[in-house]
Structure formats: structure tokens, C-alpha cells
Amino acid sequence: MHSQDGQVLDALQRWAAEGHGAALVTVVRTWGSAPRPPGAWMALRDDGLVQGSVSGGCIEDDLVVRMRAGEFAGPPVLQRYGVTQDEAARFGLPCGGTLELLIEPAPDVASLRVLSERLREGRLMRRTVDVATGTVTLDDACRGDTLQWDGQRLSTVHGPRWRLLIIGAGQIARYLAPMAIALDHAVSVCDPREEYALEWDVAGAPCLPGMPDDVVLAFQPDPHTAIVALTHDPKLDDMALLEALKSPAFYVGALGSRVNNAARRERLRQHFDLSDEEVARLHGPAGLHIGSHTPPEIALAIVAEMTAVRRGVPLDGTLADWSGSDTACRVNA
């Protein structure tokens, strides 16, 4: 599940088991510059303990004071912060930003437990709250679904809305997988090499059987999919890239030095019938240039570039270059 949603759900269930009351707070709408986007969650215990966030901290402080004072009870209530410039400054909202919150004073624990279980199964779920009655419904969501709010009903989407397929179950993948999971990706790994696949044990990131090109095709990449080749073996990486670059995946990357990736692009053009436009989609060397050398640093650089592409941030052309650590990449990829 999305790590932040999971933390809030776990806290609400744990607090209920300990006999505490708690509220669930959701950002439903923002105007101007707001610290947290619509859909952000926060759990607030009756004694003021907090899990999650809806702002940079000042609004949380106000909610804690009001929670301890017993202000939140009964059906869900709406609360708006930062309506005036003075309020925006008081609550730390930049540029006169405004946000609207839905506060559920006593969310149904059984419903939260069901949602938590389904998210652990990797399902994408929609949670709908009727503000007038507090009634909550859960159903399966589609990958393109987004938050819906009409002033009476709030529907939020929870679970892995993005996917990452990693080719190669080596050391870099062991760091990349949990980083991507924390960033709302459902992660899968493919490695036909038994010496790597049989040792793969990263929780929440299954190792899929088969050759890379077949696995990519079966994965059915869409615009919410990233594919990264890490084996440093052209026989495996190129097979995956051949299919990945033809797909609508939002990010396709490959490990290796600039020299090796230049040679790879030439192979893809000459021997695999890929167009110049398709080859140009390859991020290689994969990752932003942050001076990475170790496997966790390389994984960080890759997930940073994935995030920039996902958010539509223009890349400045400063790419990683693993030429100084090609030997390490071959061993640890």
C-alpha cells in the first residue's frame, strides 16, 4: 500500500485497540500554494498524538488543541484554513494559500481494517464518505481514478497507482524496490538468472518468472508504468528495452556508462527495428547526476529521475555516468 496511507491506517487501528478515540482528517481542496495535496491524510488521537500530515505543522498544532478540547464529535465536519492573508500567515500557508479539510471524528474501525487488508493485497481502492451521514463505502478503483469532491461526498483513491518493473534482482534493485514502494509504486522484479532470482526476498516486490521481453509484454505497460533495466547484461537488458520502448511507459531506464548506453542505442536502432523516437525515450545512464557510487546512491539517483519525469519536471540533461563503477555495477546490479 502507499506507505503514508498505511501509517495512518495502522495508527487508527492501533489507537482504537488501545481504547483511544481518534479522528481522520483529509485534505479535500486547496487554493493557491498549499503544503499538502488533496487526498493527504492525518490521524489525530484524542490526547493529541498525530500520524500523517495535512500541512507544514501549524494547522496540525491548531487541530491538536481543538481535539484535546473535545471540539470534534458527531458527523464529519468541514474546516477551512487560510481564508484571509492573516490566517494564511498564522497557519504557515505560503502565498495566501487556502485548504479545506474533512474531519471524521470517529471513523469506522471495521471499515478501516477492511481497507488496510485490501491495500496489503495490492488492490487499488476507492473510499467514499457521505458528509451528512458519515457513511463510508469501499470499492475497487481504476488506475486513472482521482479524488472527487462535490461538497457532499468525498471519494479518495488509495493503493499503488504507479508500477515499476525492475529487470535484475541484484543489489541495486534491493534498494530501488523499497524506495519506489515508499513513493506509491507497485514493484515487480524479473530476473531469469537463478543465482539472483532464488535469493530475492524483498517484501512487497514479487519476482516474476520468465524472460525479460515476455515479462514486459505480460506486464502490459501503461502511462503509469516505469521499467528499469539493471542487469548490465545486454542479452537481458536489451530484450526488456526492446518491448519497453515501444510501450506507453512513462519512464524507461537502463544502467551503464554513457559509452555503454551509446552503444546500446546503436544496437537498438540497427538490430531491433526501433525508431529514433523510440530509442530517444531511453533514460540511459538511468538516474540523475548526484555523484552516486554505491548501490543505495545509484538507486536514489534512479528513483529521483523517475519522480522528476512522473511530475513533469524538465531534466537539465545532467545524467548519471556510471563509467567509474562499471565493474561494481556488473557485480551488484
Give the low-pLDDT segments.
Answer: 324-333
Count the beta strands.
15
* Annotated CATH homologous superfamily of the largest domain: NAD(P)-binding Rossmann-like Domain
Helix fraction by DSSP (H/I, runs of at least 4): 25-40%
Task: Give the DSSP E fraction (strand runs of 2 or more residues).
Answer: 15-25%
Provide a brief overview of the structure.
This protein has 333 residues and is α/β, with parallel strands linked by helices. It has twelve helices and 15 strands.
Please describe what this structure looks like:
The protein has a 6-stranded parallel sheet, with helices on both faces. A 5-stranded antiparallel sheet has the order 3-2-1-5-4. A 4-stranded antiparallel sheet has the order 7-6-9-8, covered by helices on one side. It is built from 12 helices and 15 strands. Helices cover 36% and strands 22% of the residues. The protein has 2 domains: 3-117, no CATH class; 162-332, Rossmann fold (3-Layer(aba) Sandwich). The protein has helices at residues 3-17, 58-68, 85-90, 109-120, 171-182, 194-197, 212-219, 234-244, 258-271, 276-280, 295-310, 326-332; strands at 22-31, 41-45, 50-52, 77-81, 98-104, 125-130, 136-140, 148-149, 153-158, 162-167, 185-190, 207-208, 225-229, 251-254, 282-283. Residues 324-333 have low confidence and may be disordered. The protein starts with a helix and ends with a helix. With 333 residues, it is α/β, with parallel strands linked by helices. It is elongated.
